[in-house]
Amino acid sequence: MRVIPFALVLAVLAPQAARAEIAHHPRAEQQSLDLAKASIALRSVSGPGNQTPQVAELYKRTLIEGGFSPDDVVITPVDNTAYLIARWPGSDPALKPLVISGHMDVVEAKPSDWKRDPFKPIVESGYLFGRGATDMKLDGALAISSVIELRREGYKPRRTIILAFSGDEETAMKTSEMVADALRNADLVLNIDVGSGVLDEKTGEPQYFSWQGAEKTYADFRMSVSNPGGHSSEPRADNAIDRLAAALLRIQKYQFKPELNDLTRSYFENAAKLRPGATGAAMLAFAKDPANAKAIATLSADPALIGKIGTTCVVTMIDGGHALNALPQHASANINCRIFPGHARAAIMRELEQVAADPQVHFEDVSAGSVETAASPMRPDFVDAVTAGIQKIYPGTPVFPSMTAGASDSMWFRKNGVPSYGASPVFLKQSEDFSHGLNERTPVASIAPAVDYYLSVIPALSH
């Protein structure tokens, strides 16, 4: 396909919502694209040949060339990956730092499955293609290039600005926890990996921007039943698979108590304006009364919304039996839960045990790499800064909070009591979000407004 020049992409494919000008900062915009392509070309996938440390070195070179002191950009190797912390010292050391957080690793991608090699970035028809184009090497490049642009323009932060990139967010999150522990004195974290804008499917114009202020706790619980088994020609009432199946059906029919917090109430109140008909009415009704049965029924029927009104648990794997002609000696299943903020995993597992209502069904928490966290507060300084940044690039676009299903690096900062907010300025059509999927791509036209956004938000939070 024909490769379209960067400047032409900006002129032709930029969303049509009111932007007074485009390409205010051509140097930063070109650097964002070049850095994104260079980092996508590095296969930063967990396991043999992991090139995450090389991404860190690329970022370090770029920051030093952009004016950072070499002593202020530190790469820490961890197992086969690494994390990077870069500091831009502020003029007032008494102020806690602003952290801009992201990650350098990506999900595995097999070239044989893709139309294009996922680790050979290319711009075609106005899109940057490659693994990490959306999650999240373009975002990382935008943040780095925007900070360098601020230095180039002579900005002097009062509050120290820290760029922090973990190296295994997509897998073990070991470096994610280490970074959050090292920066537990931060005032606020701007997580550029989550939160984003949505483009209208038909017009391509910005529809709304939703920042992330909370995420649900990820949990896996193993349910298991064991008994002596026997010959299949002599069936008996006590069958491990039957017991497990009966417990699973009771869990399937169970709904955890619907609930709200300040973030989700604001989400429903604002999102309702964009959803006419029964769904929008149910959103408003639920925001007013989370016990409204009719609203609960409507929202629960939508897979995209049921997770926003409370904890959800669903069976994802089953295993049982050992021979075709034998009664099962063992049967097990995995229940995957996304837990509403404010609830402990242990409490949810106890609730599931009560629902299963069978003492022979044993429950075990087998969750890995997840911790319970409360929602971040709706801090006026953050809300005002992000709202102003979005209004600068797309005037009139609705801006409101959201809660995601988890888990991002924000989880580890919130665990340490540091408010963390997802607020990536990249806008996509929902149908074109291929994060973790095949043929991942992001519109190149999102680069110019994203730089403008960062040049507004970062000074607002670091002055």
From TrEMBL:
Database matches in Pfam families: M20_dimer, Peptidase_M20
Highest taxon of source: Bacteria
InterPro entries: Bact_exopeptidase_dim_dom, Pept_M20A, Peptidase_M20, Peptidase_M20_dimer
Domain Peptidase M20 dimerisation, chain residue ranges per copy: 214-361
Record keyword Zinc present: yes
Signal peptide annotation: 1-20
Example of a GO biological process term: proteolysis
Keywords: Hydrolase, Metal-binding, Protease, Signal, Zinc
UniProt keyword Hydrolase present: yes
GO terms assigned for molecular function: metal ion binding; peptidase activity
PANTHER family in alphabetical order: N-FATTY-ACYL-AMINO ACID SYNTHASE/HYDROLASE PM20D1 (PTHR45962), N-FATTY-ACYL-AMINO ACID SYNTHASE_HYDROLASE PM20D1 (PTHR45962:SF1)
Family: Belongs to the peptidase M20A family.
Matches recorded under NCBIfam families: PRK09133.1
Protein name: Peptidase M20
